[in-house]
User: What shape does this take?
Amino acid sequence: MDIVNKIKKFIEEECKKPTSTYGYSPFEFHFIPMVRYANELAEEYNADKEIVLLAAWLHDIGSIIYGRENHHITGVEIAEKKLKELNYPEQKIELIKKCIMNHRGSVPKKRESIEEQIIAEADALSNFDNITNLFDAVFTYEKLSRKDAEKSVREKLQRKWNQLTFEKSKERVKSKYDAAMLLLNGYEDI
Assistant: This one.
């Protein structure tokens, strides 16, 4: 698992850079919880843990370096380059690239492996633990108004909820989802 620690360090260093699109907070408030969920799901569903952990650390690197738009595509390019630098096996790099390419809920893709599904699932789950981080991103970096920020966060959480396919995952975050929907019910009708 030395490779996992090297990739974790790489992600943390990229988040610390002044050029990081969202600053350091995604490392603490998105990557770490997401990796924790990915690890739990990998154990629960008997997936390749090394592939899952590497893909979990690398899944949003495109967003950190280049921004949110098409970060699944830029992330694949960055991950491939970094893993090749570390002499990681090509066959395993391809599996990680598929996990990164297919993790986004807003860009529906067919997930062919349990590892791909786990990355999408863990990414979705982590959003329910850190709603304040979602607001930080839309206020600070996307410069949305309060009304637009509430709508954006609500819609993102709805997408993430709908993205969950494992029944246990929905059970894990149902109370958080219900509370968020109650608080972010919107006032568009007024």
